[in-house]
Amino acid sequence: MSSRPSRLLHWYGGLFAALLIAAALAPPGARAGALPAAVDGQPMPSLAPMLTRVTPAVVNISSTTRVPVRDAYFDDPMVRQFFGLPATPRERVEQSLGSGVIVDAAKGYILTNNHVVAGADAINVTLQDGRSFKGKLIGTDPATDVAVVQIHASNLHALPISDSSTLRVGDYVVAVGEPFGLGQTVTAGIVSALGRSGLGDSSYQNFIQTDASINPGNSGGPLVNLRGELVGINTMIFSPSGGNVGIGFAIPSNLTEEVMKQLIATGRVQRGNLGVQVQAITPRIARLLKINGSSGVVVTGVNDGSAASRAGLQPGDVLSSLDGKPLQSVQQLRNTEGLLPLGSKLQLGIVRDGKPLHVEATLTTEKLASIDGAQLDPRLAGVRFSELSQDQRDQGWYGAAITAVQPGSRADRAGLSRGDVVIGVGNQRITSLRMLRGLAGVHLRQLVLVVADAEGSHYVVLD
Predict the structure, then answer these.
(1) Which position among 96, 115, 203, 317 bears the catalytic label?
(2) Is the pLDDT at 401 greater than 80, yes or no?
(3) Which conformational region is residue 56 in: left (phi greater than 0), alpha (psi within -120 to 50 degrees), or beta?
(4) Catalytic: 219?
(5) Which CATH superfamily is domain 370-462 in?
């Protein structure tokens, strides 16, 4: 029986069995206290030494957001005046609780999730040692659910960032965070799968799947390897009950690091774009194009001056591979576009008229048409409208985006804001900037816009 513990104590997979056996083999006096540091000369495996370096870099993030309470009836200025209601709309306070990880001790940069801090009016960061600081939001990227917060503090501990592309299914990982507000908690498991997509609300997805327990409050916390290096940012779970069932997801560190660099440098993320409209190949389309199988995507449109146009792509081409890897879906193409830095060269395999071809495209920024509101209606002076980005269209948005609103303008006083999307004018549905342009020269006595934002849709009236 003395040889059995040495076999079980070989590595992490036998850790829990080893603890039980060690307890059984310990002298009666030792069983009442701590377990021995070694059994039969073999050291007890433990994650504790690594965690002493990791946990000081993990922070608690709480954010507060004031959200206006909208009411289609009481938002009408005439109704508010009649009932003597204040001009300032009602508000409710929303609180969010999550985690984060310090990645630059000298400058106080913290990585977390966009959904933990998006739209926050106040961010509070609490360190493991109990110190608390006001956080400054450097930037957010909803498309990948990544955000960067900064604090000004001394004696910070940061985690080194590992190359997440070296991860393998079966590698051991540890998740750290503050689930359910209980306080800092550590869970361990393995990498269950790589490259997961088609989940949640973020547009660009390349998730690490893990069975290390992730629960509400873990969002934004680190996923680390056994060297204590950051390999991912915990972001979401898949669960029918709302609790952990062994299926959690983290954003790879390579992706978060690239997003972080852009947010710190410019406050926003610029993504490469091919400039093509594509759709999946159905059996009917395959017969129409006279191709075998349904892999790849078919090009339905090419934007003028885009990377795809310069590479020679044409409507009707079938994109069959990206950088030598088979292309299986529209989501895979969008992920590849959005996760590669600007200026990246992409090798495209295409099929045209039944013949295979290979071209190279250099990813460029997406060019969006725009128009000044004054060209549509004098009451919209100071407002800038543009086409929706590919990110927004992929998320199911339609209409025309508001990219700027001049402070103090009539539109500003009426409640229009940068980031709003106009989806209707009066009773007419607006699905594109081109449709909005059709308003030019149409003089409406009362201009009623249907505007959508993250909270839903509402009316904005300009007299």
Answers:
(1) 115
(2) yes
(3) alpha
(4) yes
(5) PDZ domain (2.30.42.10)
List the domain boundaries for the chain.
3-46, 47-269, 276-362, 370-462
b/e for 306-337, b at 16 or more Cβ within 10 A?
Answer: bbbbebebeeebbbbbbeeeebebbbbbbbbb
Q: Is 269 helix (H, G, I), strand (E, B) or coil?
A: coil
Which of 99, 162, 219, 320 is an active site residue? 219
Q: Does the domain spanning 47-269 belong to CATH 1.10.3720.10?
A: no
- 422-430 long-range contacts (CB < 8 A, ≥24 apart) are 422/385, 422/449, 422/450, 422/451, 422/452, 423/398, 423/399, 423/450, 423/451, 423/452, 423/457, 424/399, 424/449, 424/450, 425/449, 425/450, 430/398, 430/399, 430/400
Task: Please compute the mean of the pLDDT values over residues 23-29 and round it to a whole number.
Answer: 47
Cβ count within 10 A of residue 107: 14
State yes or no: is 115 an active-site residue. Answer: yes
Do the beta carbons of residue 112 and residue 99 sit within 8 Å? yes
The whole-number pLDDT of residue 433 equals 87
Q: Do domains 47-269 and 370-462 have the same CATH topology?
A: no
Q: Which of 141, 145, 211, 391 is catalytic?
A: 145
Whose tokens are 């039980």? That residue is 20
Q: Which of 152, 336, 146, 174 has its CA nearest to residue 257?
A: 146
pLDDT at 6: 39
CATH code for the domain defined by 276-362: 2.30.42.10
What is the percent of the chain with per-residue pLDDT over 70, rounded to a whole number?
80
β-partners of residue 66 are 93
- pTM of the entire predicted model: 0.67
Q: Is 358 labeled as catalytic in the residue annotation?
A: no
| Model pLDDT, residue 48 | 87
Side chain identity, residue 177: G
